[in-house]
Amino acid sequence: MNNRYRFHCSLAMACVALLGSNMAFAQVSLAGGWRIWNQQDNKIRAPGPDPDSFYGLPINEAARDAALAYTAENISEIDRQCAPWPVHYITLMPFSVEIWPTKNLDGTVVAWNIGGSVDRAPITIWMDGRPHPSAQAANSLAGFTTGVWRGDTLVTTTTHIQDGYVFRNGVPSSDQEVFTMIITRHENWLTITGIVHDPVYLTAPYITSAVFSVDPTIIGSHETLGATCTPEEEVETTAGVGVPSYLTPPEAMLNFATTHHGIPQEAAMGGEQTMYPEFAKAIRGSFHIPKGYCTEDCCGSQGADGRSAMGFNIAVLMCRESNP
Amino acid sequence: MNPILKLAVPPWGCSALALIAALSLSNAHWARADEFPPGGKEPLVGTAVPATAEQATWQLPAQYSRDLGDVSILQVRPDIYLLTVDNQNDVVETGWQGTLVVGTAPATHCEALVAAVRAISEGPVRYLVSVNGDESRIGCNTPLAVAGRSFTKGTLDFAAPVISHQNALLQLLATEQNRPATTLPSEIYTRPVRSMYMNDQAIQVIWAPAAHSSGDSMVVFRRSDVVVTGDIMDTTRFPVIDVAHGGSIQGELAAMNRLLSELAVAVSPKWQRPGGTLIVPGRGQLCNQVDVSNYRDMLTIIRDRVQDLIARGKNLEQVQAANPARGYTTRYGATSGDWTTSQFIAAVYESLIQERRGAKKK
């Protein structure tokens, strides 16, 4: 290697190091109350997905089989009633969040905390460079999360997540999942993009996002405080009596998306191909809007003030019942 | 200020008392940390940040293991260590009276295992517990027993006794009669529970009939709130059901339901927090009640499907073709190796057929 080349290499490395250094230390305050805007994937995050609606999800056959055997009674098991949804629910839930830092005495941020919601465990994002726990360490539904700043964007990695569900209709997630969050603040707006990598149940990463706006009144509200939970007998499952599941999925469940929304079965059953626009073009001919189907402002959308998330959910449920 | 305190403490004394209390607490913390492992060695595992930061979050301290030769050591409680050898989990409990080892490694890893137990504690090994009669669970019984020291002199001099259920001993004797006496269980039990009190805690060895085999034991450390399941639970795959040695799907489920209903307690009523009873499965990561619930549900659903197919007159080939493990094959299944999905389904089918035959005879 000649000296000139060596000089340029050193200079380039120094520039990269300096740039990396700046990037690593750039920080934006995320602290405060953040009101969710339930306008994306509203049906999934608010009332919840239909029992056979897996479109847009890159699931494999095992995930589809597990979801079709799932009944919502499963989470009524006494052992499960107080278990929150896994960490990736942060971008699929209808709830607002509160974020605050944990600081050392010298003021450096050791961790960012995203408080829990009604049915999601709090997330701690460690910023001090600590390693993820060992493979044998216990998992939790919140997982173990570390973060680094990439410019003004916080990028996090979560591992050690317990088996759970991606969707509330029983699409499973495994303990091999790695969840990435990309947290970006634009003045009074916050976007959390979530990427689920799960080699056990997904054939491609599943990407979703949630948008929030600053709202100090959310701090300490019913949405962000979480709740206490005392399990009670709801279904007969103890002492080996049984675990709620479908031996064979009921016909009505298998055809729900087709019957109610005219969505072709091949789309409803999901899979990686259903994520892409090419698939929508390919099945356009087989998509038929059911007779009398409401296509515009059917069940309302986000409340006019953007605030009535919970009330809106109930309104949608009632609307769905009256307009099946 | 409390009027009694006001009498005893001068106005400037509160700050001083607070300082003394803080220093005492600080000392107490480090004293506890130094206790384990006994013998003045460095703790095997430490946390990377000040305890104050941990306390400010909802997370449990991160757990980091240390590798010692072939053995990975993870401290799961102040007095309990998880040792992973050849993907198989063993547990060491240690305290002022000595050490108790649950399960031992295959014979090829004895040197590393003994070194790891010594690294945790220089105290004498007082007991070994064999969780079943599998070769892989007794391979290092002799070197550990000989290196140990029993509380009382027995037929094996002061070698540490091996506790197991009688059926585990019978299984070992049936497969090989010329084993060293120190390898075989020397303190067998036949009752549902064998209890002892050591290192200031109640330790219960609980028989789980006809689960992985006929001689399975779960070990409960009551003060530490840790349960060792042996091969009844294996989060890396479907459980190995050794039908030839008395294992059955119904016994597996009975053991899992007992774990859930009596032994594994979640943090409640406050939800969302991790914690509660820790469960050490035969293989795989440390678990809590949620993991046990997941595993129990998976087993129950597959049992229900196979039972339904049998009730409809299907033979094993037809049951296999119906894929009753659907939904779980990528999570727990394997198409090659020493325990495949087909073998698991065959074991479930066989044990359910045996049960039906037994019920008809009655």
The profile of the biggest β sheet of chain B is:
8 strands, mixed
State the largest interface.
A-B, 62 and 57 residues
Weakly predicted, low-confidence segments of chain A: 11-25, 301-318
Largest sheet: spatial strand order of chain A: 1-2-3-4-5-6-9-10-11
By CATH, the architecture of one domain in chain B is named 4-Layer Sandwich
Beta-strand proportion of chain A? 15-25%
Number of helices of chain B: 11
Helix fraction of chain A, binned, reads 10-25%
Approximate shape of chain B: globular
Order of helices and strands of chain A: HEHHEEEEEEEEEEHHHHH
Radius of gyration of chain A using CA atoms only: 22 Å
The level-1 CATH class of one domain in chain B: Alpha Beta
DSSP helical segment count of chain A: 8
Helix and strand pattern of chain B: HHHEEEEEHEHEHEEEEEHEHHHH
Major sheet: arrangement of strands of chain B: 1-2-3-4-5-6-7-8
Topology:
The complex is a heterodimer of chains A (324) and B (362).
Chain A: H1 3-25, E1 32-37, H2 42-45, H3 61-68, E2 97-103, E3 109-114, E4 123-126, E5 144-150, E6 153-159, E7 164-165, E8 172-173, E9 178-186, E10 189-197, E11 206-214, H4 251-254, H5 256-261, H6 265-268, H7 277-282, H8 309-322
Chain B: H1 3-8, H2 13-35, H3 51-55, E1 66-68, E2 71-77, E3 80-85, E4 88-95, E5 98-102, H4 110-120, E6 125-129, H5 141-147, E7 162-165, H6 166-175, E8 187-189, E9 193-198, E10 201-208, E11 216-221, E12 226-234, H7 249-263, E13 278-283, H8 289-311, H9 316-321, H10 329-332, H11 341-361
Parallel strand pairs in B: 5-6, 6-7, 7-8, 12-13
Antiparallel strand pairs in B: 1-2, 2-3, 3-4, 4-5, 9-10, 10-11, 11-12
Helix pairs in contact in B: 7-8, 8-11
Q: Could you describe the 3D structure shown?
A:
The complex is a heterodimer of chains A (324) and B (362). Chain A has 324 residues and is an alpha+beta fold. Chain A has a domain at 32-218. Helices cover 21% and strands 21% of the residues of chain A. Chain A contains eight helices and eleven strands. Chain A has helices at 3-25, 42-45, 61-68, 251-254, 256-261, 265-268, 277-282, 309-322; strands at residues 32-37, 97-103, 109-114, 123-126, 144-150, 153-159, 164-165, 172-173, 178-186, 189-197, 206-214. Chain A has a nine-stranded mixed β-barrel with strand order 1-2-3-4-5-6-9-10-11. In chain A, strands 7-8 form a two-stranded antiparallel sheet. In chain A, strand 5 (144-150) and strand 6 (153-159) form a beta hairpin. The longest helix of chain A is centred in the first third of the chain and has 23 residues, at 3-25. Chain A is globular and about 65 Å long. Mean pLDDT of chain A is 81; it is low at 11-25 and 301-318. Chain B has helices spanning 3-8, 13-35, 51-55, 110-120, 141-147, 166-175, 249-263, 289-311, 316-321, 329-332, 341-361, and strands at residues 66-68, 71-77, 80-85, 88-95, 98-102, 125-129, 162-165, 187-189, 193-198, 201-208, 216-221, 226-234, 278-283. In chain B, the strands form two sheets. In chain B, strands 1-2-3-4-5-6-7-8 form an eight-stranded mixed β-sheet. In chain B, helix 7 links the parallel strand 12 and strand 13 (278-283). Chain B is globular, with a radius of gyration of 24 Å. Chains A and B meet through helix 3 and strand 3 of A and strand 2, helix 7, helix 8 and helix 10 of B.
